[in-house]
Amino acid sequence: MVAEAGIQATAPVYRPGLEGVPATQSAVCDIDGQQGILSYRGYRVEDLAAQSTFLETTYLLIWGELPDAEQLAAFEQEVQMHRRVSFRIRDMMKSFPSQGHPMDALQASAASLGLFYSRRALDNPEYIYGAVVRLIAKIPTMVAAFQLIRKGQDPIQPRDDLAYASNFLYMLTEQEPDPLAARIFDACLILHAEHSLNASTFSARVTASTLTDPYAVVASAVGTLAGPLHGGANEDVLEMLEEIGSEDQVEPWLDRAIAEKRKIMGFGHREYKVKDPRAVILQKLAEQLFDSFGHDPLYDLARKLEAAAAERLGPKGIYPNVDFYSGLVYRKLGIPEDLFTPIFAIARTAGWLAHWKEQLGANRIFRPTQIYTGYPSRELTPIEDR
Ligand code: ACO
């Protein structure tokens, strides 16, 4: 019929990793990978990192406009009021194995919120607001709680007089952080808050498209973020720098790694063919931290590796991504390496929820097709004849 109508029937083209295939329409975030520009709702990430706060950026991402002073104060207050998690969730976390990865603990804890807040009213703006507030408020508390629980301690309660970033660092380290450290950490959260249709956000949108609850949406995204090709890379960057050991080993190590076709962690990005703009900002933040709280020799090694990699991998469009310098910032803030990805999840919850809300606004369940490569129809041989 199609051929009769004069239209050429073309076989579907398979693109591994869906590279270049639009899987949704979105107004949340834009990336210009050739020029290294990232913007949330039209605002450059550099401006947000310098002038906004994570909660204000979260509001912008989810509701599409910057809040006015009253809206922001109300949102901050709601988040502050919902930071505590039920003792039942804390007790559940106490039964997790202490050697388990904090991302697995976070995924299970995020999913468990659905048991407590099961009422689902996806077409009710108040329900959406309440779910956003709960997730933004409780995810950091759960990350900090697991950190203390696995050390054999009781989690400490959030402090109402501390802002979002300061309170998280306080719950994690049991010490009120220096204001500069808290401000830099807040900027890191802004930089990680959203990045269009990456693997975890796609996962969030697929889950959202089934009209399940937002806790399941975030839990599925956390599981996707955990992998080493996505959020898990910043842990590997520090391991790699430690493995290189000294500045004179950078070039021989890199040549060996390239010859062995190893991926250099913290380098390369599907979208960016220049240095990731977030890496540029994170590098500046790292320098600010070192100026105030002491230098880290791994930073010199990282810069040397960046320069050596630019010569060898730059022509292929492979430059530092967001993970390359974020680990050095978190290390200076005294954060354990296996919490780097959970911290990424705290920030990215804002982006996931923006996509959840957008998906609900024009929903169609995701159901792509496939190209079957298996056997043709076969006769089933009874087990005694096999
Ligand atoms: N080191 C060395 N070579 C690389 C790297 C790297 N980090 N990244 C890509 N390449 C090379 C590949 O070997 C390949 O070369 P070839 O064409 O000669 O075979 C080419 O560049 C294309 O690589 P792909 O893996 O196909 O690129 P893709 O777009 O699929 O991958 C990814 C992007 C997964 C981020 C990749 O660059 C990578 O594995 N980087 C290291 C892990 C990392 O830092 N992940 C964090 C990403 S940022 C984030 O998720 C927050």
Secondary-structure blueprint of this entry?
Blueprint: E1 29-32, E2 37-40, E3 43-44, H1 45-51, H2 54-63, H3 69-81, H4 87-94, H5 102-116, H6 125-150, H7 164-173, H8 179-191, H9 199-208, H10 214-225, H11 233-244, H12 250-259, H13 277-293, H14 297-313, H15 322-332, H16 340-361
Antiparallel strand pairs: 1-2, 2-3
Bound molecules: acetyl coenzyme *A.
Acetyl coenzyme *A binds next to helix 15.
Note the main attributes of this structure.
3-stranded antiparallel sheet, disordered N terminus, 386 residues, binds acetyl coenzyme *A, 16 helices, globular, Cytochrome p450-Terp, domain 2, mainly alpha
Describe the structure.
By secondary structure, the chain is mostly helical. The protein has a domain at 233-332: Cytochrome P450-Terp, domain 2 (Cytochrome p450-Terp, domain 2, Orthogonal Bundle), CATH 1.10.230. The model is unreliable at 1-6 (pLDDT under 50). 42% of the residues are buried. 55% of the residues lie in helices and 3% in strands. Strand 1 and strand 2 (37-40) form a beta hairpin. The two termini are 44 Å apart. The protein contains 16 helices and three strands. Strands 1-2-3 form a three-stranded antiparallel sheet. Residues 17, 229-231, 233, 263-270, 313, 316, 318, 321-323 line the site of acetyl coenzyme *A.
